[in-house]
């Protein structure tokens, strides 16, 4: 079996951490139990490019229980949990190619290693696997049944591939399921981003000015949690509807040019490039803490910051100090990579339970529908989404009402008014 992990000696620690995650992943566990009996993925080769965390460990084990031949590689150079990678190799005989802190060359070498078994299904988080396939490994395309995509940034890239006629196989946008983005993006990113910032800095959030760029589901989640901890939250946005929503949610909305002077903490979650750039770094307060929780490390213009700096040094784990000519210091967390996975452990298992239940069931959906789907970006089937919501509620012991026959009839009639 091929693999590339940091240290197989970490496997026992990883196994315990995966076991801990499993306790909060009842929906995925129930799918794993069914998969173990029914083997819906028997012999299917899957390449999964995901953040290698305890929750991804649970997903990989579920796919394997369903009969799949799984290869896992990292979807970010800094998000791998080395003990999890080791445990999957040693305890589950799953090929993993991921090392926390790997350089760009190793990152792409690992993607190529995951593709080397000629996958029939790709599972992506950010679309680097799919874009590598479509640019460098096109000979592998004919045997691919389909793929899934975990995150907003990946879905945007894939839609652009579909619109320009480049996408060569069907992809299910797991991100767009309600049981994914309404929970993972909002509550998962909300909690894990604050967790990453606090673990990295141990600074007090209460009373601070916390600038959040982007008021999508992730930005909304971070704003909610920062406000809950007592910060004065400032939102920067480019979309008028989202900006309006932020205003009505009670936050101050400002252009970054103004917000840059006020913030104690800055966090970008826009999916776009250079959201915080030279002009903004130039006016920041001494001690400003800057990080990103969007998918790629492009949101902070760190080249501009290093050009402005007269010196830079790591000052704590995942914190780099940039000193400017006038003595002001700016602190960048996790090299501008997603702070929730670089400096903390990513989203809690309980939300990843729903995201990865979607992944597992969409892999099964792709196998059942092999050859029948158009080469474009598809939504998650509504029945899968609703079933996951029902299973999650049941796992939490929450009981909901049922429509009465009269109510059901009313909802299906157009004749009845007042
Ligand atoms: N993305 C965000 N949090 C994650 C986690 N815990 N596992 C995998 N992918 C993630």
* Name given to the CATH homologous superfamily of the largest domain: Adenosylhomocysteinase-like
- The number of helical segments is 17
Helix content: 40-55%
Number of domains: 2
- Tell me how many strands there are: 15
Q: What structural class do you assign from the helix and strand content?
A: alpha/beta
Mean pLDDT: 98
Radius of gyration: 22 Å
Question: How would the blueprint of this fold be written?
Answer:
Elements (H helix, E strand, L loop, with lengths): L10 H12 L3 H13 L6 E6 L3 H12 L3 E6 L7 H11 L2 E3 L6 H12 L5 E4 L3 H9 L9 E4 L2 H12 L7 E3 L4 H24 L7 E5 L3 H12 L3 E5 L3 H9 L3 E2 L2 H7 L2 E4 L9 H6 L4 E5 L9 H7 E8 L2 E6 L4 E5 L5 H4 L6 H20 L8 E2 L3 H14 L9 H7 L7
Parallel strand pairs: 1-2, 1-4, 2-3, 4-5, 5-6, 6-15, 7-8, 7-10, 8-9, 10-11, 11-14
Antiparallel strand pairs: 12-13, 13-14
Helix pairs in contact: 1-3, 1-4, 2-3, 2-15, 3-4, 3-15, 5-6, 8-9, 8-15, 15-16
Adenine binds next to α3.
Describe the structure.
This protein has 418 residues and is an alpha/beta fold. The chain folds into two domains: 8-180 and 347-395, Adenosylhomocysteinase-like (Rossmann fold, 3-Layer(aba) Sandwich), CATH 3.40.50; 189-342, Rossmann fold, CATH 3.40.50.720. It has 17 helices and 15 strands. The protein has helices spanning 11-22, 26-38, 54-65, 82-92, 104-115, 128-136, 152-163, 178-201, 217-228, 240-248, 256-262, 278-283, 302-308, 339-342, 349-368, 382-395, 405-411, and strands at residues 45-50, 69-74, 95-97, 121-124, 146-149, 171-173, 209-213, 232-236, 252-253, 265-268, 288-292, 309-316, 319-324, 329-333, 377-378. It has an eight-stranded mixed β-sheet with strand order 9-8-7-10-11-14-13-12, with helices on both faces. It has a seven-stranded parallel β-sheet with strand order 3-2-1-4-5-6-15, with helices on both faces. Strand 2 (69-74), helix 4 and strand 3 form a beta-alpha-beta unit. The longest helix is centred in the middle third of the chain and has 24 residues, at 178-201. The chain starts with 10 loop residues before the first helix and ends in a 7-residue tail after the last helix. Bound molecules: adenine.
